[in-house]
Amino acid sequence: VSVIPENSLLPAVCGRVCPQETQCQAPCTLGKALKDTDKAVAIGRVERYVADLQRESGKQGVPEVKPATGKKVAVIGSGPASITVAADIRREGHDVTMFEAFHKPGGVLIYGIPEFRLPKTIVQNEIDNLINMGVRLETNFVVGRTRKLNDLIEKDGFNAVFVGTGAGLPKFMNIPGENLVGVFSANEYLTRANLMKAYDTEHAHTPLYNSKKVAVLGGGNVAMDAARMALRLGAAEVHLVYRRTEKEMPARVEEVGHAREEGVIFHMLQNAVRILGDANDCVTQLECLRYELGEPDASGRRSPVPIAGSEFLMEIDTVIVAIGNGSNPLISQTTAGLQVNRWGNIIVDENGKSSIDGIYAGGDIVLGAATVILAMGEGRRAAASINARLAGL
Question: What is the tens place of the pLDDT at every residue in 372-381?
Fold first, then answer.
């Protein structure tokens, strides 16, 4: 438990949601010796266990903070990259203010990952640690609207800014019927359920659609989360539609197993081509096409090839599109001179520095949708660079 924080600040989180089987167990010497990653050291389980034990025993403690330097840093967003940056910079004695657009901090850890996979008390514990270290937190603060990014440096006197706003812009399939009532992005569906208590239909300001037969489009961890959430919210049937086979699914094997165990119905080698609705523009059916696998694509996965004339209809009242997220363009659109790539991700150097002096970025806003540990690694590199910058001012 004392060794883990040398590299990871969020072991209770990473031990639950990261793909340890590829990121940790695959390179493990024991797994290599036994030629089986399942027999490698189960580092995710170890992380989770010792972190929970430390927290529950009350021995976690607050990280030591050096004497005040008079320098101050703004951290935009409050997800894993931002939490890491805030902790590493505050340790050095610099003032840190974290700005969060939502009414609750935690970023994707709060709004994207369901309670059954990551208890919110664990995330709140990490936020509480930052506050106990002296980090200031401002919620309902949308950088780009409430305040422009450049203004934080030029008008508010921050010596550096870290942007960790994540990848919260949902992607859609651009098929007919996606504008019908009963079609959600997984991002919206999970945010409303996790953060806005939309399952409480009598009291929620934005109650969720009452679903009975749900189709989830996609094969990643977010698709599994949405499918399992739909079951918990009362759906009688949840169908997961994916255009490759289970072997090609990007979701963790563990998450696929949990979804199947809970009753999610899998439809492999199929994909939606059209969503149909009734006279009130409410979803009634999903038209799908069958596929077969062809040659591998650039990612090494075999490409799905449509089978002509294989269309069929599924009786559905709700469709959740879970095919990925992109970067929110708000900051790049309102910040002159900030360079982004063609996907809208902020371009940074090896130290996390952007094209504007004093502005750094990391996590999904740089990488695209990735994992907690990768976002944390980005945050640590950026924090080290910011600390070096402040030491020289």
Answer: 888 888 999 9
